[in-house]
Amino acid sequence: MEIGSGPIGPCPKEHQKIYQDWFNLADSDGDGRITSNDATKFFAMSNLSRTELKQVEACYVQTRQRSGSAITMVPTVELTSDSKRQGYLGLTEFITAMQLVSLAQAGHELTLEVLKTASDKEDIQPPVLEGLDTLVAKSKALTTNSSPESNGVAQPQPSNQWFPSKSVKKLPLNAVTSIIDGLKRLYIEKLKPLEVAYRFNDFVSPLLANSDFDAKPMVMLLGQYSTGKTTFIKHLLRCNYPGSHIGPEPTTDRFVVVMSGPDERSIPGNTIAVQADMPFSGLTTFGGAFLSKFQCSQMPHPRVISSLRGHDDKIRVVLNKADQVDTQQLMRVYGALMWSLGKVLNTPEVVRVYIGSFNDKPVNEAALGPMGRELFEKEQDDLLADLVDIPKKACDRRINEFVKRARAAKIHAYIISHLKKEMPAMMGKAKTQQRLIDNLEDEFAKVQREFHLPQGDFPNVEHFRDVLNGYSIDKFEKLKPKLIQAVDDMLGYEIPELLKNFRNPYD
User: Fold this and answer.
1) Start-end of H helices in 126-191
2) Distance from CA of residue 50 to its chain's centroid?
3) Of 251, 201, 214, residue with least CA distance to 405
4) Which stretches make up the EF-hand domain (predicted)?
5) Residues 266, 408: Cα–Cα separation, whole Å
6) Which residues are 154's β-sheet partners?
7) What percent of the chain has pLDDT over 90?
8) Residue 291's closest CA among 305, 300, 281, 299?
9) Where are the domains of the chain?
10) CA-to-CA distance for 181 and 196, rounded, in angstroms?
11) How many other CB atoms are found less than 10 A from the CB of residue 489?
């Protein structure tokens, strides 16, 4: 099929083939369009400066306007415009942007006059992209690895399930670029249909968006006022951030997300919660009162635990401003803190507490002596090393959380379908529903015995009962074995295959 030329100039068939191949490489999820994140990564291979890329983006706007197309610019992301206000690039738009990049690499100043001259030319050569050969080779290697045969000999398939399905539709690894990308594809194709069918998002956890997979890991600081949270962030960044204020009174009256961005600005909570590339859309369930006390502070900077229980491995405790007391008082404070943490976390392990004074002022050696200074420096080095290691751990944690979510969704589907099966066909539905809700513990036990499920994986009965009261059980779906089997195949075959073919990018 011949591809229509973009609004700049004609595109020969041989270039169309090149751009089609490049488009497929940039389209990480294989849905026929390039998202903002994919576009940013791909166009970065042109080695154009940020200023040049912004000029290309501005000229892209002009070319689309010349062709009579309406466009929308995605904030803070280069080359992610489209002609349908969707926040992505189609193939035609991709070719147009590539031609502009080629002109910029040739040293042309991208003005309307240059664009008009380029429109009259028969040919604009594809741009030079650094690292493209490596990306192509990797894609070919994945295609080879995902082939069921090698040198004409059929390869054995994994069989780590007790009751494997007769026909397993595997995730095409040649369409996947990383572990996270593979998990995202598996969620959309295998797990999300099960969640939607049995309203998992209403009972357990909201449906996942792309940002839940693509977003960078974050660090949340919790503590009373004037314990040094803002000072700690400034100490790591070595500069101020938008909206920061330090004082002895309660100065931070809101939840603040400090994150890297192209410009220095503060974004209100209602705005940041609706941005598709940010993982905060779930906060809209708390309403406008919460969002009015929530903000994002963005700044161009390379460095920068909503729930304690159940996420103990994510918690790092900092005993800050420790140089304001002497050694004896510090021992007493440390002991009291450890005792309190033991009651809060309710775990037999001793949590690591980093002791120090995380600010830019010298340590008060008059209170602690020279050994206190040495201790604080070592503690700070350990904490910073732990923070730097977060991206590596985040990949493993996402895999772990994804598997836990899949198991929880399966159990939820079994519970909902069991309750649906218990409902009468005609008379007495209201009375039966109330009986089921009142005896929910017994119904959970029946499901556990019937499907041989671990008791510890079942949801909280009281919470489940509260949500169930707002629904008519008779309207739920019956058990759909195909949806359950798809999740079983994903857990037993596809995730292990994904981990075998891709490594943690931070290893």
Assistant:
1) 132-145, 179-186
2) 25
3) 201
4) 14-49
5) 37
6) 149
7) 16
8) 281
9) 13-136, 179-208+396-501, 229-391
10) 21
11) 21
How many angstroms separate the CA atoms of 477 and 114, rounded?
60
Q: Which residue has the tokens 């009259």?
A: 120
Name the CATH code of domain 229-391 (choices 3.40.50.300, 3.90.950.10, 3.40.30.10, 3.40.50.12230): 3.40.50.300
Q: What is the pLDDT of residue 224?
A: 62
Contact status, residue 183 vs residue 397, Cβ threshold 8 Å: no
CATH architecture for residues 179-208+396-501? Orthogonal Bundle (1.10)
- Let me know: does 475 contact 418? Beta carbons within 8 Å: no
296: phi then psi, degrees, rounded to nearest 5: -120, 130
Is the pTM value of this prediction over 0.85?
Answer: no
Length of the chain in terms of residues written? 507
pLDDT reading at 85 higher than 50: no
Q: Which of 58-62, 73-77, 116-120, 241-245 has the highest mean pLDDT?
A: 58-62
At position 353, the amino acid (one-letter code) is V
Closest CA to 215 of 130, 139, 272, 286: 272
User: For residues 364, 370, 372 and 374, what is the CA-based torsion angle, rounded to 10 degrees?
Assistant: 120
* Structure tokens belonging to residue 251: 């100065």
How far apart, in whole angstroms, are the C-alpha atoms of residue 342 and residue 351? Answer: 8
CA pair distance 437, 441, nearest whole angstrom: 9
Q: Which residue has the tokens 């739920």?
A: 476
Say yes or no to pLDDT of 307 above 50.
no
Closest by CA position to 126, among listed 94, 101, 108, 107: 101
Give me the residues paired with residue 318 across strands: 354
Which amino acid, residue 440? L
Convert the pLDDT of each residue in 291-300 to its tens digit.
888 888 887 7
**209 or 443: which carries more pLDDT confidence?**
443
CA distance 133 to 45: 11
With a CB cutoff of 8 Å and minimum separation 6, the contacts of 496 are 158, 160
Q: Do 474 and 433 touch, CB atoms closer than 8 A?
A: yes
**Does the structure show a pLDDT above 80 at 172?**
no
390-422 vs 429-438: helix crossing angle, rounded to 10: 140
The span from the CA of 413 to the CA of 483, in Å, is 9
- What are the distances in angstroms from CA 217 to CA 56, 96, 391, 450? 31, 34, 6, 39
Query: Residue 279 is inside which H or E element, if any?
Result: none
Other CB atoms within 10 Å distance of the CB of residue 433:
20
* First CA to last CA distance, the chain: 42
Domain 13-136's class?
mainly alpha
Burial 128-151, CB ≥16 within 10 A → b, else e? ebeebeebeeebeebeeebeeeee
3-state secondary structure of 448: helix
For residue range 52-69, what is the model confidence (pLDDT) as tens digits? 787 777 777 666 655 444
- CA distance readout (Å), 39 to 59, 392, 461: 16, 24, 45
Cα–Cα distance for residue pair 216/303, rounded to 1 Å: 12
